[in-house]
């Protein structure tokens, strides 16, 4: 950015500004308009949502009393400590001034439940994560105490566009940011979470802060356009031992695909933590209690295995000959590599303790034993050059998962496709390609 003259820090307030936003009051959408001149660029990585969060019980008047800190009787209303306050986001959408969608990511909380524990260490959670994401990682007890009071937050927004380079205002004219909040029953859980009409949360004093880069002259969009990163999201139900799901991504430069699982009845349930990244699980009666390993998995493009020309087979390599299953390292390797190139990955919460393999930290400061950091994924950008695989023009993606599911225990599979797209100039304005 050799032509950069200066930068300026700015803030803006919602165009639909109200005193508080809450899904319980049907005020769950927050909209911002970001405008600038033709010689300015928006630093996408600088976007931060500033607010104060408050959790209330079913009466709508009382705060939680997790841990009975008031010694008046506990009111247990909790949120996932690994995802933290990032779990509030159901959808984040970016649009240009003509309401053309640039990126729209659904089930944002599940995406963060996937990304954060895979790319952040125990020390990260104990340090900066509490300030950036409102998450305490292994310390569910600390997360619970934080929920008892108001939580001021300056939340980093994590989407493909906010991981991209600065965006010239001349490309979009005006950038619209639309945030939809998730249901209270998806974010909150605990013994008293469902009491009365169900606990809820609200956001107060909401605004957006960001940084603008000032250039000496207007910026024209090159012929190849403005390249940006993009997340797409999909959701299906998996319930069979031999499961195959097919998606039409319609992306020309697909970099990676990641998947996580959760029992179906744990979604939007005050009785369960809907942001856990557990193994596939069978029911015993009405309760999901028996975890199942993925025995075989493969990724296909147009019915041919790609980019791996072989099936990931964990049936033999994990058998410890003592009736137990050891860590399925190959599945985990490709999953972690999909999120961040493996050679760059030096922070993660995965440990012998998190996967319940024995060893590791076992004190109250440690990862919750047996709370897996589990998923399935693959990287198509094998050379780490932002050059992936074309899944447009009828090219289909299919993944096959063989496991111990019994056919009577539906689990949800959340899939996210990470790709590169471009804003290309036309006589009628910029259009999204890719």
How would you describe what is shown here?
There is one protein chain. This protein has 434 residues and is mostly beta strands. It has one domain. 11% of the residues lie in helices and 37% in strands. It contains seven helices and 24 strands. The chain has helices at residues 108-119, 122-126, 129-132, 140-147, 169-172, 184-187, 329-339, and strands at residues 6-12, 20-21, 29-35, 40-56, 78-79, 89-95, 101-106, 151-156, 167-168, 174-181, 188-189, 200-214, 226-238, 242-247, 253-263, 280-284, 287-292, 294-301, 304-305, 312-313, 376-379, 397-403, 411-424, 431-433. Strands 1, 2, 4, 8, 9 and 12 form a six-stranded antiparallel β-sheet that branches. Strands 13, 15, 21, 23 and 24 form a five-stranded antiparallel β-sheet that branches. Strands 14, 18, 19, 20 and 22 form a five-stranded antiparallel β-sheet that branches. The longest helix is centred in the first third of the chain and has 12 residues, at 108-119. The two termini are 26 Å apart.
Secondary-structure topology with pairs:
Blueprint: E1 6-12, E2 20-21, E3 29-35, E4 40-56, E5 78-79, E6 89-95, E7 101-106, H1 108-119, H2 122-126, H3 129-132, H4 140-147, E8 151-156, E9 167-168, H5 169-172, E10 174-181, H6 184-187, E11 188-189, E12 200-214, E13 226-238, E14 242-247, E15 253-263, E16 280-284, E17 287-292, E18 294-301, E19 304-305, E20 312-313, H7 329-339, E21 376-379, E22 397-403, E23 411-424, E24 431-433
Antiparallel strand pairs: 1-12, 2-12, 3-10, 4-8, 4-9, 4-12, 5-11, 6-7, 6-10, 13-23, 14-22, 15-21, 15-23, 16-17, 18-19, 18-20, 18-22, 23-24
